[in-house]
């Protein structure tokens, strides 16, 4: 009854921790003398340093653990020492950690309900589970008594938690211990958002989180642990205050953790818990407002705390439960859910779990009519999830894009469609972005009369207003839209941006991800990507020296062809010194191998070829697994390749000569590796003109009239001007700069004639 009243008290006063009065009245514990504090501060400094060998570190940690004997609880209650102990536990051996945990087991109640000792106990429980079990735990050489096994220590902790489960559920610190125990009993790692508080996540070490995941991933729970987990679940199912548990800030994450663990090891028990939660949550909404609709929102959808449990419930529920939830609470009510401040998150989770296209289309039809209302409530996450579902089910993509353009007032007249990327990126309607509306310029829910008048206006060019800021929500939406099967309107709008606007987008924290999404998209053609790379020419040095622009350059480089990489590297090589000295540019200098390009060109070309082969190999593997290859593209490539050379195509390939090319033929379809020949021609052309900076360094050593030798062993005077080749699109014959190459070609022709 006391726990029940405590739960109600917390719900009335939002943000107040449960049992806050009781925790405030607790005596201050964990105070240590200055000598002890100084000792453990020196221990912390020593652990931060590097040891000469692992044996020294192991001996040091063992000696520190010896100093903690009989004082484990007292030391764990100190704020500073508790964090040092957590670091020590992660570095200790199984025997030392087990002995330390045995010291904590002398008073589990005090440890679980203490603000700092509870975290030390969680760390010990998690990290001892990953250490291998020792074969013999017999008495040591010094005659120490036999230590209890890890399983017995955990079971003892479970018995303590079961005996006072009501207090544990509503306590801010003991409930975290209970969540960790659920993870260890099931051998399942639950996301940190559920297990740890926000303050704890901010203070904890990222490396410790990775070790936590690895330790639980290797853990195989015993039958005893599984039985104990069932016992916890049975007790929760029988509780009469289940409704308060669902909406309580401390109890709710405990139920979430239990659901996520049961989904992995006991689906039947997980289903029972889901059904009980649904039955408890049905009825009036949490606010108590009486509504005329027959289908009222359950408490796990509409409550600020309960909605988090609703998301987890949708994540672990099977298709039957999901269908029941949709029929009873969502069907015909989707737009209201999308505009609600809490239920919109539940709807987002439901959109990610929908398995059939028919069910998604039903939800889509209800949402698409109220796109402007959803955007007016700033629930852009619903729109992003709709876009993701459109990609997942390959349906209704054109309708969503049209509705978005109408909502941003850039669908009609057609001249406004060129501004759609600019408007979506800034997340503002046409009138607000161009400062044409008289009302609220920040609202995208414009006046219908103005929209109608805009539709009837002439198809004139829109006024040029530069894009200066990128909105995070708009960036997230555009990243999904560029994965649509037909994103030609977005591509045209992106190309309508000026070079300065593209530079602004590339160097913005949110906008850089839009450019990356464009280059990662499988529906955007390679020619369009090359055109955008060419449009950014002249800005790469400034982009490379920017924090976010350097990431954009890396994404462009990873998707560029060898010929385009040469163009980018040529521009970057002119400012090599600036790149190598800049804190961000040095990463681009390394990733693009600018040093090799400027001084060891053959090595640079070999590196790029090797990386290109790896990229194609992995893209083929991913494409075969996901089945994303487009049959239309394959047929077009096959048709274009068959047209090259006509009926003599096979004979020309046998001769080894270059076929007459067109703009539609890519370098991959060209016989003889045309792209490599073009790159070689570009290299030779640069050897004649000399890259700025390189000619100065060579000129200091050689005189202009003498021969300059390069890394390939040929002299500059021996190179023929014909090595550049003749423009293949004009249909002229190819010239050769080497007599040996001529002889090889004659042999190929002779063999081809014999075969014909």
Describe this structure as you would to a colleague.
With 756 residues, this protein is mostly helical. Helix content is 64%, strand content 0%.
Model regions low in confidence, pLDDT < 50 over at least 5 residues: 1-25, 135-143, 206-218, 284-295, 436-459, 624-673, 690-739
Quaternary structure annotation: single chain
Percent of residues in beta strands? under 5%
Q: Give the % helix.
A: 55-70%
Task: Determine Rg (CA atoms, Å).
Answer: 34 Å
Topology:
Elements: H1 2-12, H2 20-24, H3 34-48, H4 54-67, H5 72-76, H6 79-91, H7 94-104, H8 108-112, H9 117-130, H10 150-163, H11 165-170, H12 174-186, H13 192-195, H14 198-203, H15 206-217, H16 223-237, H17 242-247, H18 251-265, H19 267-281, H20 299-302, H21 306-316, H22 319-330, H23 334-339, H24 343-353, H25 357-368, H26 371-376, H27 380-393, H28 397-407, H29 420-426, H30 430-433, H31 448-456, H32 472-481, H33 488-495, H34 499-506, H35 511-520, H36 526-535, H37 540-544, H38 549-559, H39 562-573, H40 576-581, H41 585-591, H42 594-599, H43 601-626, H44 631-643, H45 649-655, H46 674-689, H47 694-699, H48 739-755
Helix pairs in contact: 3-6, 6-9, 7-9, 9-12, 9-15, 12-16, 12-18, 18-19, 18-21, 21-24, 24-27, 27-32, 29-32, 32-35, 35-38, 38-41
């Amino acid at each position: 009854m006391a726990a029940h009243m405590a739960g109600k008290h917390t719900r009335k006063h939002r943000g107040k921790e449960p049992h806050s009065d009781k925790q405030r009245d607790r005596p201050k514990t964990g105070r240590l003398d200055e000598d002890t504090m100084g000792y453990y501060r020196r221990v912390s400094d020593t652990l931060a340093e590097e040891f000469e060998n692992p044996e020294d570190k192991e001996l040091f940690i063992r000696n520190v653990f010896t100093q903690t004997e009989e004082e484990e609880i007292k030391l764990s209650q100190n704020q500073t020492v508790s964090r040092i102990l957590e670091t020590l536990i992660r570095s200790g051996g199984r025997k030392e950690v087990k002995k330390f945990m045995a010291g904590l087991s002398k008073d589990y109640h005090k440890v679980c309900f203490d603000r700092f000792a509870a975290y030390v106990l969680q760390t010990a429980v998690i990290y001892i589970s990953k250490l291998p079990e020792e074969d013999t735990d017999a008495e040591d050489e010094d005659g120490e008594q036999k230590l209890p096994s890890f399983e017995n220590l955990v079971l003892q902790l479970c018995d303590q938690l079961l005996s006072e489960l009501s207090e544990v559920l509503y306590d801010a610190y003991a409930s975290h211990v209970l969540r960790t125990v659920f993870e260890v009993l099931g051998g399942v790692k639950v996301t940190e958002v559920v297990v740890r508080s926000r303050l704890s996540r901010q203070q904890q070490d990222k490396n410790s989180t990775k070790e936590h995941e690895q330790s639980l991933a290797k853990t195989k729970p015993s039958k005893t642990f599984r039985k104990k987990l069932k016992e916890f679940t049975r007790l929760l199912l029988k509780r009469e205050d289940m409704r308060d548990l669902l909406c309580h800030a401390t109890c709710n994450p405990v139920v979430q953790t239990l659901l996520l663990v049961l989904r992995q090891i006991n689906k039947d028990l997980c289903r029972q818990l889901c059904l009980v939660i649904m039955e408890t949550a049905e009825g009036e909404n949490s606010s108590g407002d009486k509504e005329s609709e027959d289908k009222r929102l359950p408490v796990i959808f509409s409550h600020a705390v309960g909605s988090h449990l609703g998301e987890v419930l949708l994540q672990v529920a099977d298709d039957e439960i999901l269908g029941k939830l949709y029929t009873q609470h969502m069907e015909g009510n989707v737009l209201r859910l999308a505009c609600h401040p809490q239920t919109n998150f539940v709807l987002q989770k439901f959109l990610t779990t929908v398995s059939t296209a028919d069910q998604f289309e039903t939800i889509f039809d209800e949402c698409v009519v109220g796109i402007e209302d959803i955007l007016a409530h700033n629930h852009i996450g619903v729109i992003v999830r709709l876009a993701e579902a459109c990609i997942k089910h390959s349906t209704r993509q054109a309708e969503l894009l049209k509705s978005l353009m109408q909502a941003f007032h850039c669908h009609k007249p057609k001249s406004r469609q060129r501004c759609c990327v600019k408007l979506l990126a800034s997340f503002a309607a046409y009138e607000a972005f161009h400062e044409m509306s008289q009302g609220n310029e920040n609202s995208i829910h414009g006046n219908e009369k103005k929209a109608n008048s805009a539709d009837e206006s002439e198809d004139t060019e829109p006024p040029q207003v530069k894009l200066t800021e990128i909105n995070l929500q708009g960036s997230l939406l555009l990243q999904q839209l560029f994965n649509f099967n037909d994103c030609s309107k977005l591509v045209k709008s992106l190309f309508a941006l000026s070079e300065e606007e593209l530079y602004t987008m590339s160097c913005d924290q949110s906008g850089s991800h839009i450019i990356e999404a464009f280059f990662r998209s499988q529906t955007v053609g390679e020619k369009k990507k090359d055109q955008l790379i060419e449009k950014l020419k002249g800005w790469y040095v400034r982009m490379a020296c920017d924090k976010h622009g350097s990431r954009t350059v890396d994404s462009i480089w990873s998707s560029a062809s060898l010929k385009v990489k040469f163009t980018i590297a040529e521009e970057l090589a002119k400012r090599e010194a600036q790149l190598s000295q800049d804190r961000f540019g040095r990463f681009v200098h390394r990733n693009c191998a600018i040093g090799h390009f400027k001084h060891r060109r053959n090595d640079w070309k070999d590196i790029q070829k090797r990386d290109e082969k790896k990229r194609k190999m992995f893209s083929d593997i991913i494409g075969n697994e996901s089945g994303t290859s487009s049959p239309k593209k394959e047929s077009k490539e096959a048709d274009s390749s068959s047209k090259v050379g006509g009926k003599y195509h096979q004979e020309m390939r046998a001769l080894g000569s270059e076929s007459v090319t067109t703009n539609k033929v890519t370098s991959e379809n060209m016989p003889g590796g045309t792209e490599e020949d073009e790159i070689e021609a570009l290299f030779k052309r640069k050897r004649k003109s000399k890259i700025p900076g390189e000619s100065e360094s060579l000129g200091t050593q050689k005189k202009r009239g003498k021969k300059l030798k390069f890394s390939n062993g040929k002299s500059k005077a021996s190179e023929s001007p014909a090595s550049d080749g003749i423009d293949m699109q004009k249909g002229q014959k190819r010239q050769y700069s080497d007599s040996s190459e001529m002889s090889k070609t004659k042999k190929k022709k002779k063999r081809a004639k014999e075969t014909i």
